[in-house]
Amino acid sequence: MSAGVDTSSSGGDKGKVRAKKMNLNVDMAPMCDLGFLLITFFMFTTTFTKPNIMHLNMPPKVDIPPSEIPEIKIKNSLTLILGKDDKIYWHQLEQSDLNASNLNVTDYSKEGIRKEILTAQKQADKDKFTIIIKPADDSNYKNLVDILDEMEITNSTRYGIKDLSSKEKQVYQEKIK
Amino acid sequence: MARVKPKRHGIHIDMTPMSDLAWLLLTFFILTTQFKPKETVTIDPPSSVSQIKLKDHGMMKISVTQDGKYYFSMDEDKYKIPLLEAMGDKYKIQFSDKEKQEFKNISDFGVPVQQLKEYLALSESQRERVQIPGIPGDSINPQIVDWVFEARQVVKKVGDSIDLGIKGDMKTQYPMFKNLLARLQEKSMNKFQLITSSESKPE
Questions:
Q1: Which of A33, A147, B64, B81 has a CA positioned 20 to 30 A from the CA of residue A158?
Q2: Mean pLDDT by 10-residue block, N- to C-terminus, for chain A (177 residues)?
Q3: How many CA atoms lie within 13 A of B156 on its CB side?
């Protein structure tokens, strides 16, 4: 039976005039459909617009005398320079050994930086592997969030954000030329 | 006399209770949903694999636009007026009751405190068109930090706490962000929450 008002009377005998019984029966199915459709819509929109947060804790500014700054072995560290056009430059060298030819370049893809981090992580001493993130001035905010994401994905808990040293700046400029 | 054939009826379920239920649930959802306050600036945040959801209450937020302008917003309406008064005291500006009420109504703003009076006097449609200078955040005039600092003080007075979220646009240049962190760190605020959209974690 189609939706609508059911006015069909249950037949009638010939001759006898009987007051027609009006049987109002509104089909609620479409209304019900609409209600559930709207609920579904609301549920989806409310749960998915909620933004996520990412904790970023920076070290407090304290003056530590240079002699007390812990040394990190080169093998246990990985320096990432976030450059422009979504490129990452990385090295595992002393500042003095750094030059444009041994500064490696990669990107934010799975085969790019993640592989490099995991390789370096394997070679390093357990629990001592430290990643130093150095965003260059021409990188953008997305790059930083992406790299912090990589830290999460690769389970690298020891990382820090620093500015580029003057040597690194110079080498980076040379490299992007 | 011909026998009257019984008329065949299809099975007919009464959908009324189901419909009632659907609409009741719908009403409940609509009433409990908090609508996102209209923001004067659209920011497209980068996505992250982080699973932590943003808190509903007790957040203040600094938004950094693509061109490096800072906006401030706070979701706790009850602290907004004391905050404005505290900022007014600091910068020697008197706000009228009407302005305070207006301040409570706006969700975010991006003007220096000296221009806030003029900004509050504008109508909603005018605010959308007006050129927004952004809240100053350089080292000489770090007003953005004052807002955060004063908000903390105001909230602390009543024994509550408030967190700071930072929302940057994907294309925001890093120096703008670095500058903001540096200014906040000067006031020994070292814990930040970066607001991002969600993304699934790769295996």
A1: B64
A2: 48 59 79 89 72 80 71 78 83 77 80 82 79 85 85 82 81 79
A3: 6
Show residues of chain A in contact with B165, CB under 8 Å: 53
Please judge whether B168 and A141 are an interchain contact, meaning their C-beta atoms are less than 8 angstroms apart.
yes
Cβ contact, residue pair A54, B196, below 8 Å = yes
Q: Give the separation between CA A136 and CA A105, rounded to whole angstroms.
A: 14
| Residues forming a β-bridge with A89 | A81, A105
Burial of B96 (0-12, 13-18, 19+ CB in 10 A): exposed
Coil, helix or strand at residue A4: coil
Nearest CA in chain A to B186: A61
At residue B109, φ and ψ (nearest 5 deg) are -145, 155
> CB of A136 within 8 Å of any CB in chain B?
yes
- DSSP, collapsed to helix, strand or coil, labels residue A71 as coil
CA dihedral in degrees (A59, A60, A63, A65; nearest 10)?
-30
Rounded to 5 degrees, what are φ and ψ at B180? -65, -45
Strands A77-82 and A159-161: unpaired
Is-above-0.80 flag for pTM?
no
**Which amino acid makes up residue B39?**
E
Distance CA B47, CA B113 (A): 32
CB neighbours (10 Å) of residue A140? 25
- Measured between beta carbons, the chain A residues lying within 8 angstroms of B185 are 58, 60-61
**Residue A48, φ and ψ in degrees, nearest 5:** -95, -10
Per the structure block, which two tokens stand in for B38?
A: 């209209």
Query: Which among B50, B173, B201 has CB closest to A53?
Result: B50
Enumerate long-range contacts of B123-132, CB under 8 Å, 24 or more apart.
B127/B40, B128/B40, B132/B40, B132/B41, B132/B69, B132/B71
Per-residue DSSP letter, B173: B
Contacts with A57 from chain B: Cβ below 8 Å: 190-192
Phi, psi (degrees; rounded to nearest 5) at A131: -110, 130
- The C-alpha atoms of residue A118 and residue B157 are separated, in whole angstroms, by 47
**Band (B24; pLDDT cuts 50, 70, 90):** very high
